[in-house]
Amino acid sequence: MKHFILLISTLFLISCSTRKDKLLNRSFHAMVTKYNVLYNGKNAFEKGLEKVESTYSDDFTNVLPIEPFSFYAEESVDDDVKPIGQSDFEEAEEKAVKSIQKHSMLIDGEEKNTLIDEAYLLLGKSRYYTKRFTPALESFEYIIKNYPSASLIYETVVWRAKSNIHTGNVNFGKKALLRLLASSRLTDKVRQQAELGVVMAYEQTPDSIEQRIAHLEASLEVVDKGVMASRAAFVLGQLYRKQGDIESSDEAFDRVINTKKGLYKYKLQSKLEKINNHIEDYSTEEFLEEVDHLIFVRKNRPYINKLLFQKGLIYEKADSIQLAKSYYVQSIQKSEQDIHQKMIAYEQLGDLSYDEKKYKSAKSYYDSLIDVSKNEKSLRVIRIKRKSNSLEKIVTTIDAANKNDSLLKVASLSEGDLNAFFQDHIDGIKQAEKNERIKELKALAAQNRATNLEGANSWYFYNSKLRTEGRAEFQKMWKSPRKDGNWFVSSLLTSVGSVKTEEKIKDSVQTNNNTKYDVAYYTSQINRDPKFLDSIAKSRNLNYYELGNAYYNQLKEKKLAVEKLEQLLVFNPSDDLKMGAYYRLYKIYKETGDEQNSNNYKQKLQEEFPKSSFTKLVNNVEEVTVDEEENEYIKCYETIYELYLLNSFDAALEEVNDAKIKYAETDLAPKYALLHAYIVAKIEGKLAFRKLLEEIKLRYPNTDEAKKAQEFLNNK
């Protein structure tokens, strides 16, 4: 009987060949395709799509792309970043390929299995979602060419157009979609997809907000529920706000909130966007109450980081900057998995510090943003990197100036003031240690309470945690036993040796602790040698001069530049720095319309440095011919270069620093900057050289020296 059933089954399978155009064959392969392979493939695809829609981390500070994909909107995503749901889409592709290979009935150039076109569509969509747009395009083209009368032909045209947009054929894709929308045969779902496809095409075109709004509205008229409808309405709200139409923006966000089967994250964010629309119109308390209520709702726990950030925004708009900062920090702490939110909060903190002129803190926050980013090529990271790099030299110079100021200040104190200064320092150390001990005791007490709450069965040998801790403590004290014949004596000798070593360490620690609290130890470290203090003063003066120029040139902060340069003049610097400071102050005051101070520094230049290049600049007198100017520059440059060739790098560095100041406001500045970089490379090495080359690129763009700097950076 078994052999008979096996024979019948074999004959049945043989009769269902893909090469025979019979009703049984067509029905069999269509049924297997629909209810087995293709069914599983569609399930895998839907699973991947759900992951894309629910887990993709959107950047709500910018207008969202209409499709929530990691590869969309910017092509700079790292190659090793896998698209969301890739394994599911790969499984769907595998099932689609299997359907085509095993169940396609292409007989005499005509496909007899009516479901193979669906398999090709699934194949193309799966490739599309794994960033392989060209292979996806091939699948869609195959359907259009070979199945022109298929029921899903219009949907295929939409997917082909979207693939063309991603491969750079934006106009072709847009025209195809607009032609398709003129048809009256489209289902609501396909019409929605086509409208959103046109929006996607217009995202690549500047000044296209009105067109995007029109097609978003059209898509929502056709389908007003579901995930894509809620996202479309959200983007619509953002675009209306960008146009300044706050009323329409509010209405769009209300549509998101009321969209059936829409994602909850869009609904919650829409409530926050409505607050942002009116953040300057109503009282702070009113908005804070609304956000506090949202924080209280248990359903919003996964979004607590965004709600805390929103509180920060509200406080920032109310000029409560410290409170705003505290909530941005809390948002970062709650954003372990949400990289986008963490980056946004770091940028906000950096911008606040930047506005407060706290450039070191600003750079620190910007660097933190760069560190947490998973995509170094994103537009935000590139922009922040530029901002951070522009602060690099300024922050370094500020630190150097502060350090030199501190050294000079401490060295200038009398013995009594010096002792009092260090006693205050020691008192601060003791208080900090006391606070740390109190903190540790509180933590220990809390741990003990938690242990006691474990119940009556927490006796040592029944408590795995206590057992583990006890074993570790035992091994720490007695070490692991040696596995040899004299293990007891050996361990005893080891213990004695360990005790002696520990005693030495304790003595060393005790000595360090004693010096830490000893005023005499600190006062003995003060170097009051006149040569040392003179070198520190010169270094400090150069720091102030560089900061004054950096504040003026890079940050456009004229007030800060004036403060630093006028403070520099109080220190009675060298003539080179003094004349440079006079000229810069003359120029700043002239630009700000302060004629009195401008004329004052002009007069100082004329009286103290009548023959300097800076004086000739303020006088607008061309006393020196071009040839003489050129000869002077050539002679100076050759002198420095000769010192460089003779390996007298310190002397060359001193001369080039003077030349940089002298020619700071001329076209010669980049030339001396590059020569300075060569000299520093010999003294400090490759890393310092590269830093200076980067600085030349930023400070003197579009010059021959900047090009040379870039060539060096590319080659080394």
UniProtKB/TrEMBL annotation:
Gene3D superfamilies: Tetratricopeptide repeat domain. It holds the Pfam family TPR_6. InterPro entries: TPR-like_helical_dom_sf (IPR011990), TPR_rpt (IPR019734). TPR repeats lie at residues 230-263. The keyword Lipid biosynthesis does not apply. Signal peptide: none annotated. Keywords: TPR repeat. This is Protein involved in gliding motility SprE. SUPFAM superfamilies: TPR-like. It comes from Wenyingzhuangia marina. SMART domains: TPR.
